[in-house]
Amino acid sequence: MTEFKVLTPYLKLADEFKERDPILSYWITMHAIQRGIKTPASKTKEGKTYLLQKMEELEARKKAIISKFEETDAISDDIVAEAYCEAAAIKVFSWADGQDRSCNFGKPVIRAFYTASSLFEVLGQFGDLPMKAEELKKYSKVKAVYLSRCLKTGETPVPGNPEEDTVPLPVAPQTISSVPAPAQPVIESAEGRVMSTSGVPIQSDLMIRLDEHVSYARSAIQYEDVKTAVTFLQRALSILTTGQDITN
């Protein structure tokens, strides 16, 4: 229905995840329905019929998911569901931001930023968005629009945040079992500068990049993205062993 065209992007996104992640697809669809209920069109006879059909379809999908998967807490428990959806949003954002910072600005990256923004918005159905999620939602949308504009105009994009000096890094949700790793000693020169294992001083800007690489790797490990984790760990090891960043 044209009256519910505002729901179209979410329903399309739900279809994209329907096969590879039916649980995430379920919650995206639920978010779309909740948005539809709040529109004026939901008060009309046609609108009520349309939304009722969507709810019946969603209930059927819920039963199918419960019958197919052993672990269904992400469907039946809102707290688990919120963590599940947040993990998916952070995973998509981590990939898009990592590609962007590696100067890969193609359409898949733009699409991923748009997807991340939508997934963070989906979290709103569980309550007020945490500040970090709100920041990443806004950043993802701004970045997607910015890269799209650059693609159309031929302008060379700036990696990271084009308006600020820092980029909000994705942080894995904390759990009761999450215990910070103990601080490790570092090798310093007589001047107090950190040295690589080859004896080359690590410049202050590379120390910042080192911390970023480790953060991205940790996030990727949390969400079982082994390939991305290995990539960022290799970059971190390059800085620690040679004093150089292989991404440059």
UniProtKB/TrEMBL annotation:
Entry annotated with the keyword ATP-binding: no
One Gene Ontology CC term in the entry: multivesicular body
One Pfam family matching this protein: Vta1_C
Domain Vta1/callose synthase N-terminal positions: 7-152
Domain of life of the organism encoding this protein: Eukaryota
Keywords: Cytoplasm, Endosome, Membrane, Protein transport, Transport
Domain Vta1 C-terminal stretches: 213-241
Location relative to the cell: Cytoplasm; Endosome membrane
InterPro entries reported for this sequence: Vta1-like (IPR044538), Vta1/CALS_N (IPR039431), Vta1/CALS_N_sf (IPR023175), Vta1_C (IPR041212)
Topology of the protein relative to the lipid bilayer: Peripheral membrane protein
UniProt feature coiled coil, ranges: none
The keyword Ubl conjugation is annotated on this UniProt entry: no
Residues in the signal sequence: none
GO biological processes: late endosome to vacuole transport via multivesicular body sorting pathway; protein transport
Similarity comment: Belongs to the VTA1 family.
This protein's name: Vacuolar protein sorting-associated protein VTA1-like protein isoform X2
